[in-house]
Amino acid sequence: MDARLDYFADPTAGKALKHFMAVGRAFKESSLPAATQELVALRVSQINGCAACIDMHTKDAAAAGESAVRLHLVAAWRETAVFTEAERAALELAEEGTRIADAGAGVHDEVWARATRHFDGEQLTALVLLVSFMNAVNRLNVITRQPAGDYEPSRFH
User: Fold this and answer.
1) Cα separation, 61 vs 48, whole angstroms
2) What CATH number has the domain spanning 32-143?
């Protein structure tokens, strides 16, 4: 499959995406655990059908030592025992934050309360920004049919 647009060849995209990707790197410096960040990025990308991001976050997480079992079970995290309570709270928040139109009221108070039990203010901020960022990146990739499969771990970090 060929991409509809080549973001790396377009000067306007190059200018905008340089800053956009810098935002993504800022999460890496937050106190939100790296494993949680990758799991959330992967789950949001699965929901949105973004193959390029699924490819990237699966490979980056594996390169960072994440187990294949956990990566394979992210899509069914509710039915597994391999995620911590904090990771489960983050994945639940990520799902409701991604499915805003489906949830009616957006993120429910109970979901937010579970997240606040596991994450401090800085981590919650990073988590909310990460969910929003991933939704934006997914849309950029899905709209332009960015191909997946050839990502090399840590290419954008």
Assistant:
1) 19
2) 1.20.1290.10
Closest Cα partner for 139 from 91, 98, 95?
Answer: 98
Cα 13 from chain centre: 21
Comparing C-alpha atoms, which of 130, 85, 92 is closest to residue 111? Answer: 92
Record the pTM: 0.91
Query: Would you kindly state where each structural domain of the chain is located, as residue ranges?
Result: 32-143
Listed residue (134, 135, 113) closest to 124, CA to CA: 113
pLDDT digits 0-9 by tens, 8-23: 788 888 888 888 888 8
Q: What tens digit of pLDDT does each residue of 46-63 get?
A: 999 999 999 999 999 999
